[in-house]
Amino acid sequence: MNGLLPDLDVIRKDFPILERVLDGGHRLVYLDSANTSQKPQVVIDAMVDHLERHNANISRAMHQLGAESTEAFEAARDTVARFLNAPSRDEVIFTKNATEALNLVARTFPLGPGDRVVITEMEHHSNIVPWQLATERSGAELRWFGLTDDGELDLSNIDELLVPGTKVVALTWVSNMLGTINPVAEIARRAHEIGAVVVLDASQAAPQLPVDVQAVDADFVVFTGHKVTGPTGIGVLWGKAELLNALPPFLGGGEMIATVTMEKSTWAPIPSKFEAGTPPITEAIGLGAAIEYISHVGLDAIHAHEQAITGYLLEGLATVGGVRVLGPLDASKRGGAVAFELAGVHPHDIAQLLDSRGIAVRAGHHCAKPAHKRFGVQASTRASSYLYTTPAEIDALIDGLEYTKNYFKV
Amino acid sequence: MNGLLPDLDVIRKDFPILERVLDGGHRLVYLDSANTSQKPQVVIDAMVDHLERHNANISRAMHQLGAESTEAFEAARDTVARFLNAPSRDEVIFTKNATEALNLVARTFPLGPGDRVVITEMEHHSNIVPWQLATERSGAELRWFGLTDDGELDLSNIDELLVPGTKVVALTWVSNMLGTINPVAEIARRAHEIGAVVVLDASQAAPQLPVDVQAVDADFVVFTGHKVTGPTGIGVLWGKAELLNALPPFLGGGEMIATVTMEKSTWAPIPSKFEAGTPPITEAIGLGAAIEYISHVGLDAIHAHEQAITGYLLEGLATVGGVRVLGPLDASKRGGAVAFELAGVHPHDIAQLLDSRGIAVRAGHHCAKPAHKRFGVQASTRASSYLYTTPAEIDALIDGLEYTKNYFKV
Amino acid sequence: MDLDSLYQEIILDHYRSPHHAGLRDPFEAEVHHVNPTCGDEVTLRVHLEDTPAGTVVRDVSYDAEGCSISQASASVMADLVIGQDLDVALSKHEAFLTLMQGKGQVEPDEDVLEDGIAFAGVAKFPARVKCALLSWMAFKDAALQVRAQGEPA
Amino acid sequence: MDLDSLYQEIILDHYRSPHHAGLRDPFEAEVHHVNPTCGDEVTLRVHLEDTPAGTVVRDVSYDAEGCSISQASASVMADLVIGQDLDVALSKHEAFLTLMQGKGQVEPDEDVLEDGIAFAGVAKFPARVKCALLSWMAFKDAALQVRAQGEPA
Ligand SMILES: Cc1ncc(COP(=O)(O)O)c(C=O)c1O
Ligand SMILES: Cc1ncc(COP(=O)(O)O)c(C=O)c1O
Predict the structure, then answer these.
(1) Low-confidence ranges of chain A (pLDDT < 70)
(2) Distance separating alpha carbons of residues A302 and D132, to the nearest angstrom
(3) pLDDT tens digits along A30-71
(4) D56 and D84 in contact (C-beta within 8 Å)?
(5) SS3 C101
(6) How far is the CA of A383 from the CAs of A62, A363, B26, B62, B242, in angstroms?
């Protein structure tokens, strides 16, 4: 198969959990990477080494452990900045996940009556609810791009949507449900024409595509650690320095201040201004190791691998009677997550049957209820691959679906 | 020495970092535990086991790994609930640190003009700044308890401070700078008389005292994972169910919703309502292991150990000419953190000299600038112990201070 | 992973031909419950009647979207509570809840739960327990709402 | 951990008897800088004068609270920039910054930095670099503020 990672066997050895044997003696077939990715040994080891040898609080601690910890934490920031091709490392803010990063922007970005925020119908709830709350609070208006039947953004009414007064256009780079890769650079260009800022949710893009914040000319970009082979408890907000400087603080407390009196406080410069309290130190170090890891494999190579696997998956699904794929049918237009329906069997029941054979997929609304509603479904089954996924695992999935049909006699 | 943990040697073996040899061949003497605590092997192992064998996203994933991960995560919530003697596990909200937990309450608690919030002059910045922001936003008034010369709360004007219209009384249980243990149950009683809710910052209490939210009759209690031998990236907000139910959501996104349409969303019940996005899963599991660990040693025993060590430290400091301790001089009135001045040497220089001998202390304002100002100092040196601290380490500190005086010829 | 203990024939039968499905009049309370994690939904109506002997559950009607377990559970629940004294119905809810939360260790009483005992296997699948409980929770909620109104028809 | 490379005698001398300390008139800009992590503070005034040959730093006066490194650095900085052409003073700032950020790998030029070369050892102590830079950053900030006003006395 063209495009597969050449050292797939070696890569799989990096992930200890892939050796896991589940109930009934089945070897794990992990097809839920869009939900969370597995972790390579090097990420686990980086965290353990930190905890066993270097653990200390950062910045404020000036002893040797404190210096080591601070250096490792700030090196992770450098790594993220390089990964995103950020103009400045100070533009990289560590949050607890992508959700907090999106809330940070939605809470602090100035909005008022007459302003408009535009999102899309394919957003993850984490890029919908913060803007609902923000527009409700401020009296601004919330509008959204609809979707075509193929699961792409419907840009036909872009001129009506992106009008002067639009302050924010927030959208996902890659859909976690439909897999669609959106034309973010083009939308950013249009948004900038009317003076809006562009917030890109790169939670699904960062794991599998080169994310260059300058090339797409984004204003804010977020992603989450646990989907890029990094730990939970850490996410990233990148923003243009001049925008971040202009925003008021989000969380108040230790480390984000310049000075504090009982009457009044002033704020530290970015990135500290937005990192109140003890940050996720071990998690940042783990994230740094994760990004080094996937960058070493190469984002272009991972992208090619994902497209090859996804193409093979789409072909396989086409052979299973009763399957309807949600989202683009052309693998080159999508990321490595494929949601589908199987006539006559509810997604939970599909997931249960697959699980009995060691195959892990996700069933439900995948935190994208509006996109499901758009396609008239309440829930779907989603198989999502990553750099460790093999064609044989896709075969196991397809077999599992046939088995499911037999079991439920459909 | 009375009160020391009987198995101190065994306990020290649980903490791999205590074997660390620093520059110049000095064995680590870690006296910065109030900044962050070290981690026992069992906590590190719990996280590694999760990452290597059970890693999956929670709730939403219904495969075997998802079930294992969810069960471990929710078991950690049970552990925290027991640790706090919380009436219900649903009252335990996982946040990223104590700072986020305090901001959550300060952002969502309804306040308006004419309302009053009362804090104290000994708060950590994380329990000052959120209330400054909240009162500024809402037009409520911010007042505070002052401090006596001994570093205790000055309750002499309590009747003027706690008047009807006071909605929130937020204070620390144990001061991270002065070490003072505050009479939180008594203050809660007074606050409730006038209808205020009580927010207790137990960041320094939870590591070293039995924290029983019902016994002190608190309304909200927060603490942070990394100070109770747990990982970074996790904190806890406990609140009375009826109060948490009444608060609006804080962060919006995945997992905190009941249902989402493009127009409108509704919220899940607590605790989910306040846990938007993928939570710090591995970190919660690590925190659970940490709390099991310190609970197994016993909080009463740890408290006795801290008091014994602190008493010994205070005695030792009294022998060093030019030392002035900030905070109560009676070890039974304080926790295991002692901030002091040494005439003629700046705290950074003290910390540097001690560090050259492998002794890690903190120098600076310890995120408590107002408390420092109250005592007319800009910075102090703080030595803070924990359950692994030995009297010999205190001896090393005292020797180090004499060495420092010699070095700077004071 | 004993699939057949989860998907008992009785469950699949109820799933394929659910009893009492659809929304009917009259009713005193209608509730809408969702399982936020997976999106399963049920709209459920309760019709109670006060009689000299006590309050009787005259009808439970529902519109459920969800997996086999949640659909079958709604069907079995309706079978079990319709026509019962409200207190008896609520005690069946209690018994079913105990069974579901028992991690597979609780022995169900067929006299109380009838077809409901087929769900014993579900208790071993933590992720599916919520599916089985959805309509039961909705029933309890609706019934207690009527009771709180203090005005059963 | 070579303490003596950090605490050079020159540094301790400046610390014990800082040059140009105290706040003086006249001045065109006054700034207040803090090191948020440790709380070190400096209030600093700059007095510039336009001459036919260029802008000259006539005075730098300051009130600094902080550790030996930050106090000594303020003293050395004032020595170095007072009386200099502004551009020369700023180039000394640049040279000092390079030295501090060099992780101990940069060889300082004594002709440019004079007593400032004593801080070479500080560059090996990452936590102390900010201490050494505090007053230099304040000086640059103040000087650029005056320049932006476009009205040096
Ligand atoms: C009393 C007190 N409150 C709050 C905090 C903040 O904790 P964190 O930085 O983990 O949010 C700390 C520790 O830094 C503390 O000592
Ligand atoms: C597109 C997208 N956005 C946002 C998120 C939220 O990420 P997190 O839950 O880590 O905050 C996710 C994943 O759940 C996602 O797929």
Answers:
(1) 60-61
(2) 45
(3) 999 999 999 999 999 999 999 999 999 997 668 999 999 999
(4) yes
(5) coil
(6) 47, 9, 53, 13, 40
How far from the centroid of its chain's Cα atoms is residue A319's Cα?
Answer: 30
Q: How far apart are CA C121 and CA A204, in angstroms?
A: 36
Among D39, D41, D67, whose Cβ lies nearest the Cβ of B349? D67
Cβ-Cβ contacts under 8 Å, B356 against chain D:
1, 3
Identify the H or E element spanning A305. Answer: helix A299-318
Give nearest CA residue, ligand 2 atom 16: A176
Helices (H) and strands (E) in chain D, counts: 6, 3
DSSP class of residue C28 equals S
Torsion sign, CA atoms D68, D70, D76, D82: negative
In terms of Cα–Cα distance, which of B366, B379, B381 is closest to B123? Answer: B366
Instruction: Check: CB of residue D100 under 8 Å from CB of residue D77.
Output: no
Ligand closest to B175 (CA) is: 1
Question: pLDDT tens across A346-373, in order?
Answer: 999 999 999 999 999 999 999 999 999 9
Tell me phi and psi for residue A341, to 5 degrees.
-115, 150
C97's CB contacts (< 8 A; 6+ apart) are: C133, C136
- Amino acid letter, D83: G
Closest CA to A2 of A399, A310, A246, A374: A310
Q: What are phi and psi of A96, to 5 degrees?
A: -90, -25
Residue B219 corresponds to which tokens in the numbers above? 């309304």
Give CA–CA dist C152/A145, Å, rounded: 47
| 8 A C-beta contact, residue A47 and residue A38 | no
- pLDDT higher than threshold 50 for residue B269: yes
Dist. CA A170–CA A173, nearest whole Å: 10
Tokens of D114: 């004079």
Collect all residues of chain C within an 8 Å Cβ-Cβ radius of residue B259: 34, 36, 39
**All residues at 6 or more sequence positions from B96 whose CB lies less than 8 Å from its CB, including other chains:** A96, A100, A233, A277, A280, B233, B234, B235, B280
Q: DSSP state, A153?
A: B
Provide CB contacts within 8 A for A249, sequence distance 6+.
A108, A256, A267, A273, A274, A276, B133
Closest Cα to residue A185, out of A157, A150, A210, A208?
A210
Q: Which residues contact A242 (CB under 8 A, 6 or more apart)?
A: none
Q: Active site includes A366?
A: no
How far apart (Å, rounded) are the C-alpha atoms in residues B132 and B296?
Answer: 39
ipTM of the complex, rounded to two decimals: 0.94
| Whole-angstrom distance, CA of residue B168 vs CA of residue B123 | 15
Distance of CA A130 to the CA centre of its chain: 16
Rounded CA gap, A230 and A228, in Å?
A: 5
> Is B276 in Cβ contact with A100 (below 8 Å)?
yes
* Contact of B244 with B93, CB cutoff 8 Å: yes
Residues B43/B282, Cβ–Cβ less than 8 Å: no
Considering CB atoms only, which of A356, A364, A408 is closest to C38? A364
Provide the token pair at B303: 């408290």
Give the span between the Cα atoms of B359 and B357, in whole angstroms.
Answer: 6
pTM for the whole structure: 0.96
* A367, A377, A407, A408: the active-site residue: A367
Percent of chain A residues topping a pLDDT of 70: 100
> Which residues are CB-neighbours of B10 under 8 A, at least 6 positions away?
none
Determine the straight-line distance between the first and last CA of chain B, rounded to whole angstroms.
32
> Residues 6 or more apart from C17 whose CB is under 8 A from it?
none
CB-count exposure of residue A343 (10 Å: 0-12, 13-18, 19+)? exposed
Q: Which two tokens stand for residue A210?
A: 């080169």
List Cβ neighbours of A227 (8 Å cut-off, separation of 6 or more): A33, A34, A36, A37, A203, A204, A206, A207
Total Cβ atoms within 10 A of residue A331? 21
Is it true that the peptide bond before C36 is cis, omega within 30 degrees of 0? no
